[in-house]
Amino acid sequence: MAALTNRGLFYTEELGSMIRVAQVLGLTSTAFLAGKVFASSFTAVPAILHAPAPLLAKQFKTVFDSDIYVNSIASVVGTGVFWFFAYRDPNPGSRHQILYTTAAALIAAAVPYSFMFLQPISRQLLQRADDFANTSLTDTAAESSLAEEETTHVLVDRWATLNLGRSLLCCVAALSATWAAVDRLEVVPAVGKIVGGADRMGH
């Protein structure tokens, strides 16, 4: 008598508790970073642009000082976790390894992007905040001496626009890592074999 057996049709990788914690931490920090960077351009900046130049410069400095620490920590956590997952993948070149590597690389790429495009503007705005330190925060004529230069409002608006590029990098990184995390089910070839009665009994 013959019987058809199928083995190894589907499999999923069993992750340990520490690995799951690291995965959640990496995904959470990256999603938080993407949302925070995006909100800076679409929520925070539009709100403070209504302020006079001295107050605007001070508000930008407050936002900048807060973001630089929070964003740095989230970036380090996300990059470290995703590099780790890419490194530990037993199948070089696998879809999961590519997705995690992409996520880590995009988060890391946000650092040179910030230095190249955002840092020069941030430096000018932080200098404006120092220059306006002894100026009334509601003085609308405070920038009269800066007539030959770009106004504080123009600089902040430009910073917000360029910050969208950093937001895009973080968002794609979050999506890539999330896809790698949820795509744990893999298909392997089904093994079909006709075995006799003696084979089924282990003989």
TrEMBL record:
**Sequence similarity:** Belongs to the anthrone oxygenase family.
Keyword Membrane listed:
yes
> Which protein are we looking at?
DUF1772-domain-containing protein
**Transmembrane domains' residue ranges:** 68-86, 98-118
| Keyword annotations from UniProtKB, A to Z | Membrane, Transmembrane, Transmembrane helix
Kindly list the places in or outside the cell where this protein is found, as annotated in its UniProt entry.
Membrane
**InterPro entries per UniProt:** Anthrone_oxy
Keyword Signal found: no
Q: Give the species this sequence originates from.
A: Friedmanniomyces endolithicus
